[in-house]
Write a structure and sequence with these properties.
This protein is mainly α. It folds into 2 domains: 104 residues, Serine Threonine Protein Phosphatase 5, Tetratricopeptide repeat (Alpha Horseshoe); 93 residues, Winged helix-like DNA-binding domain superfamily/Winged helix DNA-binding domain (Arc Repressor Mutant, subunit A). The chain has 11 helices and no strands. The protein starts with a helix and ends with a helix. About 6% of the residues have low confidence.
Length: 202
Amino acid sequence: MQAEAERGCGEVYPGKQPSHRAGQRREAGTPGLAALRIAAGRLRHLNGDVEGAAVLLRRAVALAELHPRPTTLFLGLLYVADAELGRGDRPAARAALARAREVVEEEPVSTYAKRRLEESEARLGRAGARTAVRSGVLAEELTDRELSILRALQGPATQREIGAAMFLSINTVKAYNKSLYRKLGVASRHDAVAAGRELGLI
């Protein structure tokens, strides 16, 4: 099945980029091409070619931006983030996830899509936390729940609202905040968010 998918993607996207403007205009005028390019890029990533996948996926996302279909654009951005993280380019992965978050906030997407975004954000945060612990900047790694709360602290939601969104009591949120602040060496929400961004956790 994977071989058939690769063959189909290869027919649509044989790997050679158009070298002239007419080809680029033709590409831009083909709405379904972005989804096929995203599939080709994802397959390339799954086959271990992370560098090639990142190039294909960035181009596919640029096409998807021309023909906005929220789900296609959103998935492309998630796959770009995965590929960039695989390449070790965490700032590029963070930028792709930030754009995916904008898409979620602007357009209705499925609960599944939102969950995929949260998983990708958590993966990026975990990678940042591991790096910070290895480098000695953090003495202790943040848990997934602490990372989720740290991401939520970036917005305007109160602790009670954060708890309601995560199905936690306010006292549980406060306990997580206390642990989070201790691990980051900060004393306020603002400082926690600033430290999280500086360490690449969010």
